[in-house]
Amino acid sequence: MASRAPEQVDALRLAVIRLERKLRKSAGSGEVTPSQYSALFALDRHGPFRLSELGRREQIGKSTVTRLVAGLEARGLVSRAVDDVDARSSIVAITDAGRALLIHLAERSNDYLRDRVDELDAADQDRLFDAVEALAKLGAPR
After folding, report:
1. What is the pLDDT of residues 97-110, one digit of tens each?
2. If exposure means fewest CB atoms within 10 Å of the residue's CB, which of 1, 107, 116, 140 is most exposed?
3. Is the pLDDT of residue 29 over 70?
4. Please, which residues have CB within 8 angstroms of residue 40's CB and are 6 or more apart in sequence?
5. Where does the HTH marR-type domain start and stop, copy by copy (predicted)?
6. Would residue 93 count as lying in a domain?
7. Is residue 16 part of a domain?
């Protein structure tokens, strides 16, 4: 497939950044960082994980994932336990409090996004939802 013009790539990047900012603001930024939200989401949907696996999924290094989990654990949003298979490793799981916060933030973001999508005409809505799978692939771990 032919490469897109730099202007198109710039426009896509800017649109994603702006939308992410709006979603974060609508959810009440300050409750968790984008990295913390992403980790909570991954743990809720696919966890629990070894600390190293969470880092790989989130595409962050060992020291970064350790700090991230420590911050979430201090707030009671995740729990950490020794891995039964490898006592040198930790297993991280989302707690009920973490899940409740995630639901709260998702509801606020979804309300905002739903309202904005409703402002689009039907053709734009169809094009937007047709692009969801491709956008998800862009953010997937490699």
Report:
1. 999 999 998 898 89
2. 1
3. no
4. 32, 72, 77, 78, 94, 98, 101, 102
5. 1-137
6. yes
7. no
